[in-house]
Automatic annotation (TrEMBL):
Basic residues compositional bias, start-end: 1-14
Segments of skewed composition (Basic and acidic residues): 67-79
Region of interest (Disordered), residue spans: 1-21, 33-83
Biased composition (Low complexity): 51-63
MF (Gene Ontology): arylformamidase activity
Family stated for the protein in its record: Belongs to the Cyclase 1 superfamily.
Protein name from the UniProt record: Cyclase
Protein's GO biological process: L-tryptophan catabolic process to kynurenine
One Pfam family from the record: Cyclase
């Protein structure tokens, strides 16, 4: 990899979406890679063919004789070998650890680039052994009173008055429950830009009809979640069960923290949990954490659940430290998710930037929130396996900032 420049020159929007139906994609394409007859299969890159919006500022990158050629903004080297460590990443103004030049100036995938054909094939061949499958999706109905002021889910079940037929009409905020935060969700707050130097003002808002699938406005599609939907978020999942880690050997099984109260998990804590479970990380892993939000929600009274939406949001999550950033980047995870509503400890300490800015804005790393990992916890504990094949096919929302994950684990 070419040497990276040391310095790059150079909202929190929550939208609702009307969805007539939620389609799921099959794994036949991926599982076919396990067959010798499918050798040589190539997965289609998800990129916008038209020009992207002009960047907010020019990225100063020194030319290098060993720079790899790019195709649609992505290096031909699908293995992504010799990635820089966190300390080698350049600054963007006052923000440390900018990975825009790692993935390419026109990139719209971020760390999903790490989920190459080889990575997916290896994960599928090594991890799918017993055929046991686990859904990681909380039903769209929950929580019935969403957090952060988001719209409650509306599911209108419509029986036909004349035939034995039914329709459903669904109106949700794509971040009211189980979700992926996409690249359009959270930008660099002090600089007015989203991932890969995309100006916030280049993105339109409101209801925007799209009629011709062959003539999509590139500014409408740029860094939209349809890119991840087209590529898929598939590979080896790694589960860190912080709840069982902290309650092991205790009689009352009480956590030393409250999932519904501000608390930060350290990088050392995650590493210790991984060591206890016998987990070794590798590049391209999809990291999934269990911190206890959904477990507590399921065991709470309805009055306690309803009160969550009425009070200021406070939740346990990963801390915003430089050690945590090094842990996440240097292990080169493709994505990270948890059962918590914000992934990171919420709210952030005064004067501390949100981890969302680093993960989404500087790295392009998907953030999963409110994944239902209760059954996954049971299966992992019963089998002693904390790695599995993971698949997720978000909704193909052109220009979307988030989506339900449609995620599953395969053992």
């Amino acid at each position: 990899m070419s040497k990276l420049p040391r310095v790059l020159k150079g909202h929190n929007s929550r939208r609702s979406l009307d969805i007539p139906s939620m389609a799921t994609k099959r794994l036949s394409k991926i599982l076919s890679w396990m067959s010798p007859a499918s050798k040589g299969h190539n997965k289609t890159e998800s990129s916008v063919s038209q020009e992207a919006p002009a960047p907010a500022e020019t990225v100063a990158a020194a030319p290098s004789s060993d720079a790899k050629p790019e195709v649609n903004g992505h290096s031909k080297d699908s293995k992504w070998s010799n990635l820089p460590n966190f300390d080698e990443l350049p600054m963007f103004k006052d923000m440390k650890g900018c990975a825009w030049e790692v993935w390419g100036k026109t990139d719209q995938l971020g760390t999903i680039n790490l989920l190459t054909d080889e990575v997916v094939k290896r994960a599928a061949s090594e991890e799918i052994i017993t055929g046991v499958t686990v859904s990681l999706n909380w039903p769209l109905n929950f929580p019935s009173k969403p957090l952060f002021g988001r719209k409650h889910p509306e599911i209108n079940m419509k029986p036909s008055p004349t035939r034995v037929v039914r329709d459903d009409e669904i109106h949700i905020n794509t971040q009211s429950g189980s979700q992926w935060d996409g690249l359009r969700h959270f930008g660099l707050q002090d600089h007015g830009i989203f991932y890969n130097n995309t100006p916030a003002e280049s993105m339109a808002g409101g209801f925007i009809p799209i009629h011709d699938p062959c003539a999509i406005d590139p500014s409408m599609a740029h860094i939209g979640i349809q890119n991840w939907a087209n590529h898929g978020i598939c590979g080896r999942g790694v589960f860190l069960d912080l709840v069982r880690y902290h309650t092991a050997g205790t009689t009352l099984k009480e956590l030393p923290y409250d999932p519904w109260t501000t608390h930060g998990f350290t990088a050392a804590e995650l590493e210790a949990c991984a060591k206890k479970q016998g987990v070794t990380f590798r590049q391209g892993d999809i990291l999934i954490l269990r911190a206890g939000f959904i477990h507590k929600y399921q065991n709470a009274t309805q009055e306690e659940r309803d009160a969550l939406a009425e009070r200021p949001e406070t939740f346990a999550g990963i801390e915003q430290s430089e050690e945590m950033k090094k842990f996440l980047w240097n292990n080169h995870f493709a994505a990270i998710a948890s059962d918590q509503p914000a992934l990171e400890s919420w709210p952030t300490p005064e004067g501390t930037a949100h981890m969302h800015q680093t993960l989404l804005g500087l790295w392009g790393m998907p953030i999963g929130e409110m994944f239902d990992v209760e059954k996954l916890s049971d299966v992992c504990a019963q089998t002693g396996r904390y790695t599995f094949f993971f698949s997720s096919w978000p909704l193909a929302i052109i220009g979307g900032c988030a989506s339900p994950p449609n995620a599953a684990a395969y053992f």
